[in-house]
Write a structure and sequence with these properties.
By secondary structure, the chain is of the alpha/beta class. The protein contains 21 helices and 21 strands. Helices cover 49% and strands 19% of the residues. A hairpin with a 4-residue loop joins strand 3 and strand 4. Helix 14 packs antiparallel against helix 17.
């Protein structure tokens, strides 16, 4: 069932754990957002450009003050777009009238915006080939590529704005190279981030020589900043709904991202994580000791500029505060955090094999809404486990108490051992198993998470077992004695007793189906296909048990009259009403507590 909803369970106990989850730690890109990035803003020292279009389709234009610009006349913009093509591992190609991304979605967006400016990525890459590179790593937060251009070497670096600006001493302008004004770029960074843009900066470094390999020391300082690129990745509409559902279910959502703090805050606000999200950066996580971090995880809605190592510390702090946490991840470095969380969730599309191996669950669609569906299913599974137990124990308890009561009082057994064997065999299969197929109750996501330490046999369930068992014994024994008092034979009285027990089990099945709601509704009485198959099956079996000659010989039964069946039905209906009244009273008492 869960796999059909794109939640692949790798370790079965995780299903039960999902019902107790109190906090979801989720990545942003692709999980909470559509992962369809598009360049929306470009900032150079001289100009601010806006980009039109949608998604990865390279249709649209680059505009300034509402007018389409000729990129050839904007040298800095042209250099920035070319650098975005060369410092790039993605491919963007058209396949059957749709544009397909191979590689990083952000890098694909850089190709798309360059193509809107009539640049040809394939031709440029052939013209200015890459000769060396430093791959992106979350530790250094940038990617560097060195290219052969006109028999000399040029290195392009793109990455987190704070990191790239710190590596630059100058900036390219329309008038040439000038000293960098860091306060200007800090202001531009805040403006773009406040609009929910994910921002990357691109810089250029001269050298080293083509014959030399590219090292980290070559790009630590002395770079020339080309500009900022602001990308948007819209929130998934279903993720917004799912976050609302999670809040209703008493589950916190914490967004963890590598984005700038202001960008992350705006996206979190759009998603509905909080009206005024509290943001904490990775630097603060790193500086905090374990005690301070435990306090932080209580207050923070968004962790920005984080690394996989921070994820591990965050989930550990949440667990120290008594939370049952899920953690999403896709990279190799996410594996420790996924392993540490009660339910590690790997991405099925972009996740590495290491992440999937460490996780308890894999999202086939990389969608946050699937997590909420899985939690809903997990709560339903646990509810159904409790329902099966709550149905099985009283029905078996009633049989045992009936025999014990008869023995203690020195009376004739109202049910023989072989009849008990029959009841156990047919009722457990025809009725008990139907509860395993129960759909979720309406309020399954409006209840708080189940406390992880709560026992299966709670005080409520123990009381229910005793109360229902007593009702069953009273009904079964009562009709057995009534039949004898009416002059019926012992076989008829026992047959009535067995059929009464089955009838009470049927009405109790309807009552227990809604453990948190009244069963006295049209939906409650309608049942499910599994329930009606069970009821029809056991009715036919009981008819054979009662009226077919060979069965009467085997089980010592006798035919019942219509009056006896009518009285049995009346007792079953009264018992059902008593069960519903008790459920209502217990619910009211729990609310007062």
């Amino acid at each position: 069932q869960m796999a059909s909803k794109n939640a692949i369970i790798r370790r079965l106990p995780a299903v039960e754990t999902l019902g107790s989850v109190t906090v979801i730690c989720s990545d942003k890109t692709g999980t909470l957002t559509c992962n369809e990035m598009m360049v929306q803003n470009i900032v150079t020292q001289d100009h601010h450009y806006t980009v039109t279009g949608s998604g990865y389709t390279p249709k649209g234009s680059i505009q300034m003050d509402g007018q389409t610009v000729d990129v050839a006349n904007h040298h800095t913009l042209s250099s920035l777009l070319k650098a975005g093509i060369l410092n790039n591992d993605a491919e963007l190609r058209e396949d059957e009238n749709r544009w397909v991304v191979e590689g990083n979605p952000m890098e694909a967006a850089l190709l798309s915006v360059a193509m809107k400016a009539n640049l040809d990525p394939m031709h440029l890459r052939q013209l200015e080939p890459r000769v060396d590179d430093i791959p992106f790593d979350s530790a250094h937060k940038f990617m560097a590529t060195r290219h052969e251009i006109a028999d000399s070497a040029v290195t392009f670096v793109k990455g987190a704005p704070e990191r790239i600006v710190g590596m630059c001493e100058q900036v390219q302008t329309a008038n040439g190279i000038e000293s960098i004004d860091r306060s200007f770029w800090e202001g531009e960074l805040e403006k773009l981030a406040a609009q929910g843009n994910r921002i990357i900066a691109i810089a250029v470094f001269e050298g080293p020589a083509i014959s030399e390999s590219l090292g980290m020391d070559d790009i630590q300082s002395g770079g020339t900043l080309l500009g900022f690129i602001g990308l948007v990745d819209p929130p998934r509409p279903e993720a917004i709904t799912a976050i609302t559902d999670s809040h209703t279910a008493g589950i916190r959502v914490i967004m963890i991202t590598g984005d700038h703090a202001l960008t992350a805050k705006e996206i979190a606000r759009q998603l509905g994580i909080s009206e005024d999200p509290v943001v904490c950066t990775g630097d603060r996580v790193e500086a905090a000791n374990d005690q301070e971090l435990r306090r932080l995880v209580h207050e923070v809605d968004v962790f920005a500029r984080t690394t996989p190592e921070h994820k591990l510390r965050i989930v550990t702090a949440l667990q120290a505060e008594g939370h049952i946490a899920t953690m999403t991840g896709d990279g190799v470095n996410d594996a420790p955090a996924l392993k540490r969380a009660e339910v590690g969730i790997a991405m099925g599309k972009k996740g590495t094999e290491a992440a999937k191996e460490a996780a308890e669950m894999v999202l086939a669609d990389d969608n946050f809404a699937t997590i909420i569906q899985a939690i809903k299913e997990g709560r339903t599974v646990f509810d159904n486990i409790i329902k099966v137990i709550a149905w099985t124990l009283p029905t078996n308890g009633a049989q045992a108490m009936t025999i014990i009561t008869a023995l203690v009082l020195g009376m004739t057994l109202p049910i023989t051992p072989i009849q008990i064997l029959w009841v156990n065999m047919v009722s457990a299969v025809a009725l008990g198993l139907t509860l395993a197929f129960e759909p979720h109750e309406k309020n399954v996501l409006s209840r708080p998470p189940r406390p992880s330490q709560s026992p299966i046999l709670s005080r409520r369930l123990i009381w229910q077992v005793a109360f229902v068992s007593t009702l069953f014994v009273t009904g079964t024994f009562g009709l057995f004695l009534w039949a004898l008092d009416q002059g019926a034979s012992i076989e008829v009285a026992r047959t009535l007793g067995v059929n009464t027990l089955i009838a009470l089990e049927i009405v109790y099945l309807f009552s227990i189906r809604y453990a948190h709601n009244s069963s006295l509704t049209l939906e409650g009485m309608k049942g499910t296909p599994a329930v009606w198959i069970g009821i029809i099956s056991i009715t036919l079996l009981q008819a054979a048990f009662t009226w077919i000659g060979p069965m009467q010989s085997i089980f010592g039964t006798a035919s019942l009259s219509s009056d006896q069946l009518l009285v049995m039905t009346g007792v079953a209906i009264v018992t059902f009403l008593i069960l519903e009244i008790e459920k209502l009273v217990s619910y009211k008492l729990n609310q007062k507590r």
